Amino acid sequence: xxxxxxxxxxxxxxxxxxxxxxxxxxxxxxxxxxxxxxxxxxxxxxxxxxxxxxxxxxxxxxxxxxxxxxxxxxxxxxxxxxxxxxxxxxxxxxxxxxxxxxxxxxxxxxxxxxxxx
Amino acid sequence: xxxxxxxxxxxxxxxxxxxxxxxxxxxxxxxxxxxxxxxxxxxxxxxxxxxxxxxxxxxxxxxxxxxxxxxxxxxxxxxxxxxxxxxxxxxxxxxxxxxxxxxxxxxxxxxxxxxxx
DNA sequence: CGTATCTATTGACAAACGTCAATTGAACTG
DNA sequence: CAGTTCAATTGACGTTTGTCAATAGATACG
Lengths: 117, 117
Fold this sequence. Notes:
5 helices
């Protein structure tokens, strides 16, 4: 996914007046852009964004058995969404006996938040 | 995409001790979650995130002819990404003669930024 | 041990995505 | 008008995504 972020020198000006002011280069480095895009992508589904919202507002660890009935999707689908959030580093989980508890890892979200501001 | 955000009442407690504290309900409303997820989704690609970064840092209108050579993708691919950003309301464009100029519409990003903080 | 409960994984499928080459549409230039 | 240039659209393609039903793992309880 996207080795296409390499910067290139400015193209030749068209054969009239220039189209605009000088080139601007992206401030975000390629690796950083990919990390933040991955975080944004993980938030790019209403269920996952709502999951993160619930976990953030609760400020503690929440059992999966509490999360499942909040949505009209199957248990396996919700588990799949939780895995995506885990893979993106946005949440972590912890097993206690039969149950699994999820909580937000704020660092990843903070990074995206910092870029947005 | 996702009429599955309807809230449901708490499931029955398992037949032992409860698994955790009482249910938490999402603070974000369904429609809001879908709008913000759409914004996050549009940022969920490294090229699009970098495009937004460039446009934000420049604080003016930038010609497409300046944007194309910044990436190793074809002109049509970049146009496709710009369209996705436009569809999400993150950027707007303006034609001037032969050229097209893009600029950031800060409102959408601000909304996501506000939710993240 | 056997059964019940909670969560994760697998397999399947349709829809959406990212990409390119080729074409179209607009608008300037001579 | 004919040719050129910039940007958007179309069509095609392989990949990824979101979803479910079914299954598997892990743990608790009798």
